[in-house]
Amino acid sequence: MTTQAELTVFSPAKINLYLRILGKRADGYHDLETVMLPLNFGDEIVCQWRATGLTLECDQPDLPTDDRNLALRAAKRLAERCGVTQGARIILRKRTPLAAGLGGGSSNAAMVLQALNKLWQLDAPRATLDELAAGMGSDINFFLTGTTAVCRGRGEQTAPIPCRLSAAVLLINPGFGISTKWAYDNWAKLTETHPAVTVLARALAADDLNGVSDALFNSLEAPSVGKFPVLQLLKDTLRAHGARGALMSGSGATVFGLFADAGKAETCGVEIRREFGPSMWTQVAKFAESAV
Ligand code: C5P
Q1: Which CATH number covers residue 78?
Q2: Are strands 217-218 and 6-24 parallel, antiparallel or unpaired?
Q3: Is the pTM of this model over 0.85?
Q4: Which of 158, 232, 240, 261 has its CB surrounded by the most CB atoms within 10 Å?
Q5: pLDDT at 291 over 60
Q6: Which of the listed residues 181, 185, 218 should we mutate to test ligand 1's pocket, taking the one with most ligand atoms within 8 A of CB?
Q7: 103's torsion region: left (phi>0), alpha (psi -120 to 50) or beta?
């Protein structure tokens, strides 16, 4: 077998259409039920084969390229687990905002596990990658699954579901990050009324945008909106410009709107930057196809 010298992989961002916290666990994490969808927007990762040494480079200067970076940690864990003596140079072209609720770091870690498994010709089974993923974070397993999924436990138990939603998504990041730990710590057990996840799943399978919009839910939204009222303003503005539904993704601070029409989503992004200023990051995306 010849050694492949280089692999380039797409590292998708995700949004949560539904995130319901069920309660706090003894280990400090929270049990949840969440629906995550991969987007056709994300980062690019190049993995080049090297005889020895593992290095990471990134075009986003705010992101550490040492062991604090989940992508490098994933590479090291895979190498340790499989007794790898080869090396790799990992180049990360970052497009997804950081600490944004879009799963950027988790996606990078999952894609590095898959890419190096190929580049190093390890043939490590999915179960091994899943075990490494669960040991490093709660969302990495979802990105290994790669399709729309209901995720449970602390997020690491993934069950793919069919998604035929053809809507356009407008992502808006207000330029500040929200710590995932802070968001969970401030989740107050509000007397939440929540839609059932099965209602959302049915609407996704039927490409029913109104049904999906009515079933959007996020337990982490209320504490974040309380601290950062601009998030509510952004949601209201999305709706005023034609979004059928709007929600904060994951632990925020990105909010998204669902549009029947990509043109309207683009126009809304322009309006948001005009009304709120150029520090607003906006991006129109589509849902990546579900293989289920
Ligand atoms: O797993 P991850 O590193 O993404 O989580 C970051 C932090 O978010 C955890 O340390 C924890 O405080 C919180 N968290 C939680 N329950 C989850 C997922 C994350 O409390 N299900």
Answers
A1: 3.30.230.10
A2: parallel
A3: yes
A4: 158
A5: no
A6: 181
A7: left
